[in-house]
Amino acid sequence: MTETPKYDVTKKQDDMELRRYPGYIQAEVRVDGRDYRHAVERGFNILAGYIFGNNTASQKVAMTTPVKVNQSRKIAMTTPVTVTGRDSFVVSFIMPAEFTLQTLPVPNDPQVQFKEIPAHTMAVIRFSGYFPLAKIESSKQRLGQWVLEQQLTPQGDYIVAGYNPPWVPGFLARNEVMVRVGEEG
């Protein structure tokens, strides 16, 4: 069974949830790309290399779910400040709970970075399919509206999380859009 981070559901309404996650470590890589699917493929391959032994210890690290992707626009510092038009994505794997920053094998690829994520609350909406942009965007809008209705404050970028390997039919695939939120106000 693939490890998935534990969480407590503190509120549920239709297909949306408010979840409390404990802290964890994630391995992440920043990639430039055209879209989520392309970013997932590129970032996944780099991170999969790490967990399959492309590290200084040649140690395999168990695969976990979800694979997470968030997107941000790069901004160039010019006069005036302009958006470059290229998208940057951060693709991440959550490391198995047995590891600490000190016990994880060191990646051979310098693109792989580790980040300690403290305990946090996420607003989440579930959808199926493999990163269809229209579904991602409508899920972001629905979740954003729900977050406002719950009097929560979004903190950071929306994250797209995928839980299944590519051979699972799209209609059975579990995917989520999530955003970190502040305390109820």
- From N to C, what is the helix and strand string? EEEHEEEEHEE
Pairing-aware structural class of the strands and helices?
Answer: alpha+beta
What is the approximate shape? globular
Order of strands, main sheet, comes to 1-2-7-9-8-4-5-3-6
Number of strands: 9
Q: Tell me roughly what share of residues is in helical segments.
A: 10-25%
Strand % is: 35-45%
The pLDDT mean sits at 87
Number of helices: 2
Main pleated sheet: 9 strands, antiparallel
Query: In angstroms, what is the radius of gyration?
Result: 17 Å
Distance between termini?
Answer: 38 Å
Low-pLDDT sequence parts = 73-85
General description of the model:
- This protein is of the alpha+beta class.
- Helices cover 18% and strands 37% of the residues.
- It contains two helices and nine strands; from the N terminus they run βββαββββαββ.
- It has helices at 36-51, 133-149; strands at residues 8-13, 16-21, 24-33, 67-76, 82-94, 113-117, 120-127, 159-162, 175-180.
- The protein has a nine-stranded antiparallel β-sheet, covered by helices on one side.
- A hairpin with a 2-residue loop joins β1 and β2 (16-21).
- The longest helix is centred in the C-terminal third of the chain and has 17 residues, at 133-149.
- The termini are far apart.
- Mean pLDDT is 87; it is low at 73-85.
Summarize this structure briefly:
The protein has helices at 36-51, 133-149, and strands at residues 8-13, 16-21, 24-33, 67-76, 82-94, 113-117, 120-127, 159-162, 175-180. With 185 residues, the protein is of the alpha+beta class.
